[in-house]
Amino acid sequence: MEAAIIIIVIVVVIVLWLVTSYNRLVGYRNNRENAFANIDVQLRQRYDLVPQLVNTVKGYATHEKDLLEKVTLARSAAMNATSINDKIDANNLLSSALSGLKVSLEAYPDLKANQNFLQLQNELADIENKLAATRRYFNSATRELNTAVQSFPSNIIAGMFGFRKEPMFEIAQEERAAVERAPKVEF
Question: Which of 44, 58, 127, 166 has its CA 20 to 30 A from that of 18?
Fold first, then answer.
């Protein structure tokens, strides 16, 4: 009789541990997905702003057609991406294209003084700042999930139920060299 009670208690403890571990992993996964939904909101604003920015620049920078087309294509690819990983890759491409546009615009002093352009540029900077904050939150949620998926003993539950390590939202390889280089300051 005592042995049966001990076995039942052990089984109940194991079942409670399994349920708790599984629910914790589900919570981490849902938190990560919610964090990416927040990024999606910022990306939607960015996508809506990019055509306005491109059209404003077109009036001043007609010979920058290739660059403007690159931004437009990158925006389209980002909007059509479906999975979180595809969206991360597509938005890294869009960030790279927008960086190229910013550099190219330095040659247009009249454009930089245009109120519409300045307002759009400020809105884009604001969105980029919000995106950076939401990306940090997403990466934090991803780190929590990855830690739980890789840590013992929750990695056993993770393996049983198909949880896996997820990628962070990182800088694209093409931009990494530019980011790691010290900024050039000119007066």
Answer: 166
